[in-house]
Design goal:
2 strands; two-stranded antiparallel ribbon; about 0% strand
Length: about 775
C-alpha cells in the first residue's frame, strides 16, 4: 500500500511532527479558553457555596476511584513487563520490550485519568458561571459560557491524547536494531499498551462514574419527585448535591476518559495496519492533527441569539461541527496530495500543453485513502443526525413517548424501548455502508482511517457533548439557590439541548468504536497468525455466541449495580425526610454529605465485577482455547455490543427528553400532571440506560479488542486448546472476584420497602426523643 516518496522524511520525529505541533496548539487553546472562562462572573455567595460543594464531592470521588485503580494499574504494569521481558515478540528478542510495553501502559492509564480529572475540574468551575450568565445576560451568553467550558475539556482531551501517542511513538523507535520498517512495526506494537492503559481506565471511569451519577439521580427522582412531590434539584432533597456531583464524575470525567480512549484507539488501530509503511503509519497522526487545527476554527463558529428555539440552538452547535468538518477535509486533501505525490503533480494537474498529467498508482492509493477519511467523517455526521432525530423532542419519536404517557408509565416504557430498538437501523446501515466502501477502497487500513476521520474533529464535537452536563449543573444551582423561574427556564432549554448533543456524542462514540474494534480485530488476526476463520467451525461459532453474550452480562451487572446503589440512596433520603425536623417544610438543611458518601462507596464497590470480567474475557478465551476462538468471541461481542449500546443510549435519551418536552413546552398539560409523572418514571428507567450501561459498552468492545492485540504476539501460531492449562488462571481470577464481591457487597441486600429506621443513621445512634417526637 503506497510508499514514502522521500526516504529522509521517514525519520520518526518527522512522522509525528505535525501531530506534536497540533497537540501544542490544543494545549494553548485549552489554556486560552480557561482564562476566558475565568473572566466570567461566578454569581452570589450562595451559588458559589453550592458550586464548591459539587466540586468537593467530585474531587473526593475521583480521588477514591483513582486510589483503587492505582492497584489495578500497578498489577498489570508488572504483568506486562514480566510477560514481554520473558518472551519478547520482536525478531531481535529485545528484553527491553517489557519496559517499553509497561511504560506505554502507564502513560495511557495516567493520561486517561488526567483527561477525566481535567474535564471534571473545568465543568465544576463552569457550572456556576453558566448560571450567572443565564441570570444576568440571557440564553446566548449562557450557551457561550457552557460551550467554552466544554471546549476546554475537548481540546484538553485531544491535546493530551495526541501528545502522549506522538511522544511515545517516537520513544518506542529509539534503540531499535531492526530495519526501518520493523522498527515502526514494533513501535506500534508497544503503543498497543498505551491503548490498553487508556481503555482500562476509561472502562472503570465510565462504569463507576455512571453508577454514581445514576444511583444519585434515580434516588433523588423517585423520592423527591414521585414520593414527596417536590421539584427537580430542590434543595430540600438530600440527594440533589450527589446528583449534581454525578453529572461531573459520570457525564464529564467518565466521558473524557472514554473519548480519550476512542481517539487514541482509532489512531493505534490504523497505525497497526500500516505494516511499517512510513507514509501509512504517519497518516492517522497527521489526520488527527489536522482535526485539531480545524476544531479551533469550529469553536469560533458557535453562537446563537436570546430566545432561540431548540432547532436554532441545535443549529448553533452544528455550525461548529460543519465548519471544522469542511476544514479538516481541506487539510487532509493537502496532506494526501503531498504525501502520495511522485513530485510531478499536486492534486490532478496539467502539463505545459494543458494535457492532464497521468495519475500514478501511488496517487490513486492516496485519493482512495482520502475517500475513506471523507466517508468516515460523513458517517459520523449521519449517525449524529439519526441520533438527534430519535432523541430530540423536536421530532416525532420522542414526542410519541410523551403522548404514550397519557395512558401511564407502562406505555411510556413500551414506546421508549420500541423507539430505542428501531433507532438501531439507521446507524447500522450507515456503518455497514462505511465498512463496505472503505474496504473496497483501501482494505482494513481504509476502515481504520475512517474511524480516525470520524473522530478527527473531536475537539469541537466533544465540546458540544461536554457542555450538556455543565448546563444541567447550572440548572441545579439555579433551583437550589432559588433564583427566578426565568433562569431555570433558560438552563432547562440548554439542558434539553444537552441531552440531545450527549446522545449524539454517544452515537458518534459507538460508531467509531465499531470501526476501531473491527480494525483492531483485523490487526489481531494478523499478529496472532490466524489465517482463516470459518464461521461453521464449532469452535468459532461457540466463541461467537459467548462473545455475543458478554455485552448483555456487562449491561446487566451495571444496571443491577445502579438499582442496588439507588436503593441505598432512597433509604437514606427517606430517613432524612422522616427524622430531620423541618426538612419537608424547607426550614432545615439536608445532610447531603451522607448521600455523596453512599454514592462514592457503592460505585467503587460495584465497578469491580464488570471490570474484572471485561479485562479477563480475552485471556480466558484466548489462552484456554486459542486465537481462532478469540477472533470469534470479539466478532460476536462487537456485533451485539453495538446493537445494545445504540438501543440503550437512544432509548434513554428519548425518555429523558420526553419529560423535558412536557416541562419546557408544556405538552400534555405541563408539569405536575399524571402524564408528566409517567414520563418521569420513563426518564428514571432511561437514566442507567443512557449514562451507565450504554456508554460503557463501546469501551467494552474496544478494551477487549485492544487487550487481544496486546497479547496477540504471545499466542501467535497457537492451535486450539494448546495452552488450556494456563487458561485456568484467568478463570480462577474471575471465580475468586465473583465470590469476593458476592460475600462482601451483594449478599447483604437492603429492603427498600422496609419501614424507616429512625433511630440509626448508617449504624450511628441519633436522638431517639427527637425521632419519637417526629413520629
Amino acid at each position: 500500500m503506497g510508499s514514502w516518496p522521500n526516504p529522509p522524511a521517514a525519520n520518526p520525529i518527522e512522522l509525528v511532527s505535525l501531530s506534536l505541533a497540533a497537540s501544542g496548539l490544543a494545549g494553548l487553546m485549552a489554556f486560552w479558553l480557561q482564562r476566558k472562562l475565568k473572566s466570567a462572573p461566578r454569581g452570589s455567595d450562595e451559588m458559589n457555596k453550592l458550586s464548591d460543594l459539587i466540586a468537593s464531592g467530585a474531587r473526593s470521588f475521583l480521588k477514591t476511584e483513582y486510589f483503587y485503580l492505582s492497584f489495578f494499574v500497578a498489577v498489570f504494569f508488572v504483568f506486562l513487563v514480566a510477560l514481554y521481558s520473558a518472551d519478547p515478540p520482536t525478531a531481535a528478542n529485545d528484553r527491553l520490550d517489557g519496559i517499553r510495553m509497561g511504560g506505554c501502559f502507564l502513560a495511557g492509564a495516567g493520561l486517561s485519568a488526567l483527561a477525566g480529572w481535567g474535564g471534571m475540574a473545568v465543568a465544576t468551575d463552569a457550572n456556576v458561571r453558566t448560571t450567572q450568565a443565564a441570570d444576568k445576560e440571557g440564553l446566548a451568553k449562557a450557551l457561550r459560557v457552557a460551550f467554552t467550558g466544554g471546549a476546554v475539556m475537548g481540546f484538553t482531551v485531544v491535546g493530551l491524547g495526541l501528545f502522549g501517542l506522538s511522544l511515545f511513538f517516537y520513544l518506542m523507535t529509539i534503540n531499535r536494531d531492526e530495519d526501518e520498517r520493523l522498527a515502526l512495526v514494533y513501535a506500534i506494537d508497544s503503543l498497543t499498551g498505551f491503548g490498553f492503559g487508556a481503555s482500562s481506565i476509561a472502562l472503570f471511569a465510565r462504569v463507576a462514574g455512571g453508577i454514581y451519577t445514576k444511583a444519585a439521580d434515580v434516588g433523588a427522582d423517585l423520592v423527591g419527585k414521585i414520593e414527596m412531590d417536590i421539584p427537580e434539584d430542590d434543595p430540600r432533597n438530600p440527594a440533589v448535591i450527589a446528583d449534581n456531583v454525578g453529572d461531573n464524575v459520570g457525564d464529564v470525567a467518565g466521558m473524557g476518559a472514554d473519548l480519550f480512549e476512542s481517539f487514541v484507539g482509532s489512531i493505534i488501530a490504523a497505525a497497526a495496519l500500516a505494516n511499517g509503511d512510513p507514509t501509512l503509519t504517519m497518516l492517522p497522526f497527521w489526520v488527527a492533527g489536522a482535526g485539531i487545527f480545524a476544531s479551533v476554527a469550529g469553536y469560533f463558529a458557535v453562537g446563537t441569539k436570546d430566545g432561540a428555539s431548540q432547532h436554532q440552538l441545535l443549529f448553533a452547535l452544528h455550525k461548529g461541527t460543519i465548519v471544522s468538518g469542511i476544514l479538516v477535509l481541506a487539510f487532509v486533501a493537502i496532506i494526501i496530495s503531498q504525501s502520495f505525490s511522485d513530485g510531478s503533480t499536486i492534486l490532478f494537474g496539467a502539463d505545459e500543453d494543458g494535457m492532464p498529467i497521468p495519475v500514478t498508482d501511488t496517487e490513486k492509493l492516496g485519493w482512495k485513502i482520502f475517500s475513506c477519511v471523507v466517508i468516515g467523517l460523513f458517517a459520523g455526521i449521519l449517525i449524529g443526525q439519526a441520533t438527534e432525530y430519535f432523541t430530540s423532542y423536536s421530532y416525532w419519536p420522542t414526542r410519541s413517548i410523551t403522548e404514550a404517557g397519557v395512558t401511564g408509565p407502562a406505555t411510556v416504557i413500551i414506546q421508549g424501548i420500541g423507539i430505542g430498538m428501531i433507532s438501531c437501523v439507521p446507524p447500522v446501515i450507515i456503518l455497514v455502508a462505511t465498512i463496505f466502501g472503505c474496504n473496497a477502497l483501501a482494505g482494513g487500513y481504509g476502515i481504520a482511517l475512517s474511524a480516525v476521520g470520524m473522530l478527527s474533529t473531536l475537539g469541537v464535537t466533544l465540546a458540544t457533548d461536554a457542555y450538556g452536563p455543565i448546563a444541567d449543573n447550572a440548572g441545579g444551582i439555579a433551583e437550589m439557590a432559588e433564583l427566578e423561574e426565568r433562569v431555570r427556564e433558560t438552563t432547562d432549554a440548554l439542558d434539553a439541548l444537552g441531552n440531545t448533543t450527549a446522545a449524539t456524542g454517544k452515537g458518534f462514540a459507538i460508531g467509531s468504536a465499531v470501526l476501531t474494534s473491527l480494525s483492531l480485530l483485523t490487526a489481531f488476526k494478523v499478529k496472532a497468525e490466524v489465517e482463516v476463520v470459518d464461521i461453521t467451525d464449532p469452535v468459532v461459532l461457540a466463541s461467537v455466541l459467548f462473545g455475543a453474550m458478554l455485552p448483555f452480562l456487562f449491561a446487566a451487572l451495571t444496571m443491577l449495580s445502579v438499582q442496588k446503589a439507588a436503593g441505598a440512596i432512597i433509604i437514606e433520603v427517606r430517613r432524612q425526610f422522616a427524622t430531620i425536623e423541618g426538612l419537608r417544610e424547607g426550614t432545615a438543611e439536608a445532610d447531603s454529605d451522607k448521600c455523596v458518601a453512599i454514592s462514592t462507596q457503592c460505585s467503587v464497590e460495584e465497578m469491580i465485577l464488570p471490570g474484572v470480567y471485561a479485562v479477563m474475557a480475552p485471556f480466558v478465551v484466548g489462552i484456554l482455547i486459542g486465537p481462532k476462538a478469540l477472533t470469534g468471541m470479539l466478532g460476536g461481542a462487537i456485533a451485539s455490543g453495538m446493537m445494545l449500546a445504540i438501543m440503550m443510549a437512544n432509548a434513554g435519551g428519548a425518555w429523558d427528553n420526553s419529560k423535558k418536552y412536557i416541562e419546557i413546552e408544556g405538552a400534555c398539560g405541563g408539569k405536575g400532571t399524571d402524564t408528566h409523572k409517567a414520563c418521569v418514571v420513563g426518564d428514571t428507567v432511561g437514566d442507567p440506560f443512557k449514562d451507565t450501561s450504554g456508554p460503557a459498552l463501546n469501551i467494552l468492545i474496544k478494551l477487549m479488542s485492544m487487550i487481544s492485540l496486546v497479547i496477540a504476539p504471545i499466542m501467535a501460531g497457537w492451535g486450539d486448546w494448546e495452552m488450556w492449562y494456563y487458561g485456568l488462571i484467568p478463570i480462577a481470577i474471575c471465580v475468586i472476584a465473583t465470590i469476593f464481591v458476592w460475600k462482601c457487597y451483594w449478599s447483604d441486600t437492603q429492603d427498600i420497602s422496609a419501614p424507616i429506621d429512625t433511630t440509626t443513621v448508617k449504624g450511628e445512634e441519633v436522638d431517639e426523643e427527637a425521632a419519637k417526637a417526629k413520629e
